[in-house]
Amino acid sequence: SYCAALATAQREARLASGERIEVFANIGSVADAEEAVRLGAEGSGLVRTEFLFLDRAEPPSEAEQAEIYAAIIESFGDRPVSIRTLDIGADKPAPYLPLAKEDNPALGVRGIRVGLRYPELLAGQMRAILRGAGGRTAHIMAPMVSSAGEFAQLRAMLDRVLAETGHAAPVRLGAMVETPASALIAGTLAREADFLSVGTNDLTQYTLAADRTNSDLARDLDALHPAVTRLVGIAAEGCRAHGRMLGICGGAAGDPLAAAVLVGLGARELSVSAARVPEIKQWLSALTLEQCRAAAEAALAAASAEEARGELGRLLGRAE
Ligand code: PEP
Ligand code: MG
């Protein structure tokens, strides 16, 4: 029940077999952060920073950004908070960026591609995140990474910022896995990145070639499509090979059947919408790692998302 879920909510999330799974929240404002902590989030695996950059004539100053990042980070106390760098493109209006109109904005200059074209904007955001983190470990991650070269440029930019600012506290730099390309080369990315985090919303969109904003396709956009599951499995393998942590921050992490599969594939951090934190914590506490691994096997072997859901429902005793 919801009350039982709230009671478990403030406890550390563990599987019934004892393994620690961190249940984090995705947030997009200071108010979200406070709500997430109240609901038992153990950190944030995704702070969407677009809210700071859209619908205004000038980009936010580093001081303004730093103040908001600090407020978000402080709401979580000692718990980790991963701040995602700007993920905008031609479909989101930022008047101060002269982005050309595109026929296919989802396949255009967006995410890290924007940041690398406007390096002062991205470097400024990095400086603001470091200031916001102060003496705590800063976790910075970039959206829509699709090649090792992009990640190398990101790392070089961070190194330059660290050298110029003399920032001395620890910094972890991660890449989001949101494209089939990044899932397939996750092992290569994991060599250079401190962590990877799968964005299942975009990964599903790009794998299935189905626009996530097209309501006509909503039914088909299921992260339990075996093609998506296999890509997450490859990403998990790449992380394991290099001893890196794999997190999940797309909507699938908050879907109970998919959450079991993701844990079975190797994810140890699930970042979900704040409202789903209590339920996901409680759900995980009833599952063993063995069950999650069996769930992953079943999902990998399924012929379709529908078949995967049917099989998982039977296996995990949960009709959806
Ligand atoms: C995702 O793509 O799964 C993700 C977490 O990022 P966003 O939803 O902000 O694109
Ligand atoms: Mg995304």
From TrEMBL:
Compartment(s) where it occurs, according to its Swiss-Prot or TrEMBL record: Cytoplasm
Entry's Gene Ontology molecular function annotations: kinase activity; metal ion binding; phosphoenolpyruvate-protein phosphotransferase activity
Main location as per UniProt: cytoplasm
Transmembrane intervals: none
Single GO cellular component term: cytoplasm
UniProt keyword annotation of Amino-acid biosynthesis present: no
An individual GO BP term: phosphoenolpyruvate-dependent sugar phosphotransferase system
Record's keyword annotation contains Translocase: no
Keywords: Cytoplasm, Kinase, Magnesium, Metal-binding, Phosphotransferase system, Pyruvate, Sugar transport, Transferase, Transport
Family: Belongs to the PEP-utilizing enzyme family.
UniProt-recorded name of the protein: phosphoenolpyruvate--protein phosphotransferase
Organism: Pelagerythrobacter aerophilus
Taxon lineage: Bacteria, Pseudomonadati, Pseudomonadota, Alphaproteobacteria, Sphingomonadales
Gene: ptsP
Parent-record interval covered: 535 to 854 of 854
